[in-house]
Write a structure and sequence with these properties.
Shape: globular
Order of helices and strands: EEEHEEHHEEHHHEEEEHHHHH
Largest sheet: 5 strands, antiparallel
Strand content: 15-25%
Length: 315
């Protein structure tokens, strides 16, 4: 079609097109694989967000048989592009993002009708999912870089440690978790913040999205800035057990970023998206920062240093 312009997508298997119709535009999301999640669930989650007065793309039209939906166009400006401009007060934006996160975490309705008029209930983010995600690190990154013998031996020990860390989480899985809450998925829409890429949302640990935002592999910030944002979030919470929350924040940051290294390696090897590899060194830096902050990561630190020769003691 002449009025469709392909636009830059994300790490998923979806394709995105901007549709121009006179002065109006919309986005066509095409998903031939995993279309239940990428079309039906995506729209269902957006409905939950909109119902809770959180800006998410509204559905204009669906053609599930032909593998696409047509949704609201939020434009091209993400918070990420905004923050990379000179003389921007980054903390001012992060305060707005934390206010948005508080609204997201206040969501209580977890059931919605999808566009097929079927009930969709947001599933739980259980430990099994968390552990399987962290194991992507072994399945892709370790497999690519090491011999089969090293990989098998490493894998056994790694899985034991990951399971132990997951079992050491203290908070309940009772909060709406976007699971990819970072500045590249936050759009500037008429002085508001719009939330996109929400199809993976689950009901899980309240520390997860904050870890995703603060220890974001795509956007570099200083340790002091990270601490400032963390403290701003904490001060705005009622009845928060800080010790338990900090424990879970650190564990989830490490588990998430190990998963990220696995996913970035998979994107490069399986999908030919090699540009993701350049973000792996900073991901290691984020893991290193958290791993050195707490004794509970000593076994993981020892394993990574011994087998992967990762320098984890540097500042």
């Amino acid at each position: 079609m002449k009025n469709l312009i392909k636009i830059k997508g994300d790490a998923s298997i979806r394709n995105f097109y901007r549709k121009k119709n006179n002065r109006n535009t919309s986005i066509i999301v095409v998903a031939k694989k995993e279309k239940f999640k990428n079309l039906l669930v995506y729209d269902a989650i957006n409905k939950v967000l909109n119902k809770n007065k959180i800006l998410a793309p509204s559905l204009y039209k669906e053609n599930y048989k032909k593998n696409y939906i047509e949704i609201q166009d939020f434009g091209n400006e993400t918070i990420f592009t905004k923050l990379n401009k000179k003389k921007i007060n980054k903390f001012k934006y992060f305060k707005k993002i934390i206010n948005l996160l508080n609204k997201v975490q206040a969501i209580r309705n977890r059931k919605i009708k999808n566009f097929k008029n079927k009930d969709y209930t947001i599933p739980k983010y259980d430990k099994k999912i968390l552990i399987n995600e962290a194991n992507l690190f072994c399945d892709w990154y370790v497999k690519k870089n090491f011999s089969e013998f090293t990989n098998d031996k490493f894998k056994k020990e790694f899985k034991k440690i990951i399971k132990r860390l997951a079992n050491n989480l203290k908070l309940k899985n009772n909060f709406f978790v976007h699971r990819d809450f970072h500045v590249s998925n936050l759009m500037v829409v008429n002085n508001q913040i719009g939330l996109i890429d929400s199809q993976d949302a689950l009901i899980g640990n309240r520390a997860y999205d904050l870890a995703s935002l603060i220890d974001d592999v795509r956007f570099k910030t200083s340790k002091s800035f990270k601490k400032k944002v963390f403290n701003f979030y904490v001060k705005r919470q009622k009845k928060l057990d800080l010790k338990k929350f900090k424990n879970d924040f650190e564990i989830l940051s490490i588990l998430r970023n190990l998963k990220v290294i696995g996913i970035f390696t998979r994107l490069a090897l399986r999908d030919g998206k090699k540009n993701y590899l350049k973000m792996i060194p900073y991901t290691w830096k984020l893991i290193k920062t958290r791993i050195n902050e707490n004794e509970k990561f000593q076994d993981l630190k020892k394993l990574l240093k011994k087998n992967l020769k990762i320098k984890l003691n540097e500042n």
